[in-house]
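Anyone else keep sequences and structure tokens together like this?

Example one:
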Amino acid sequence: MLHGTDELILVELLVECADSAFQKSQSKNMEITQEKTSAGIRLTIQGRIDSTNSVKLGHELEQAIEDGHTNIILNMLQVEYLCSTGIRVILKAYKDAKAAGGSFGIEMPSECVKNVLGMVALNEMLVG
């Protein structure tokens, strides 16, 4: 049985999931730019990370790791929306980077990203 905060989180996630079908038809562009750094690679994301755009983000992250970039930073300052599918893609990249001996983190999360990651208790693990 759920209580208080757990119920609120569940309701918010269910609303987000119900919204995802609508988002597929309304998906706005997401832009990803890459910048090599002395420690690895930084991906700057602009726009919405919805269920459609999450696929593109997943491919970019997988390709970066395949290319040997296991130290990954996501700059998410200009992310307007983050869905549960996007969270799953980010967690997979986190696990893959760690398994390859690297690191993974989010820098400068937007308010939306902070709120969503906070709801699922991932701020501490991902935001640095």
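And example two:
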Amino acid sequence: MNHSRVFGVLTDKHRQQEHETHVKRVQLQAVGWTAAGVLLVLLLGALTEQGRSPLLPTPGWQVALVYVVISNALLVRGFQRRRSVRFGPANVVTVIRSTLVGLITGLVAASFTTSISVVLLVALVVPALALDAVDGWVARSTGTSSELGARFDMEVDAFLLLVLSLYVAQTLGVWVVAIGALRYLFVMVGWMLPWFRSKLPPRYWRKVVTAVAGIALAVAASRLLPGLDAALVALALALLLESFGRDVVWLVVNREPAAAEQYT
């Protein structure tokens, strides 16, 4: 019997088992963060403002729960497909930010049927925007950057802008919704035109414009600068149109239908 071959087979089997253990551990971590998010939503739904109405009205915490469960389920699915062996500190930051976005979503949903605490809304929006700069820095400094983490971060950004634009549109007008809708319009065009899904070259300006749009919407949501808030939001929309327009021009000029690299 070839003992070296037997030893090699056993070693490979052990490595495979160890790999599977790490994969399952990552998925369990994601499930654990889901449970934490659910508990936070329920807690906020149970707390009341000065002993009267709940901080997060019933329609709000229900919507927040749906967001937290679905977003984290998609994240778990992403980990499963990629057989990820590490959750990573940057993903922890993004999951926390995503949970904040879930709470913001719940408040905005509730605002269409009842009054909400603007102070609470702004108190959630500010750290959600601030953490957007933190997760990227953490990923780079710890060497844990990943395609899944970057995609998750981008989708959380896009959804936050959509939700905030829906809230601000109630006071400034429906045109504000364009800020949140641009990203999803871009995606829908990609469904119809495969070359539109080609991988774009990295451009830091996209992050800058996204941050400016978030800040402008946060200022408008706070209602601290009446009159000026509309100008800030209009400027943010103009910057987003310029940024998306530049990407569209690049895609048109460099389109290669047969060799387009598609996002999964």
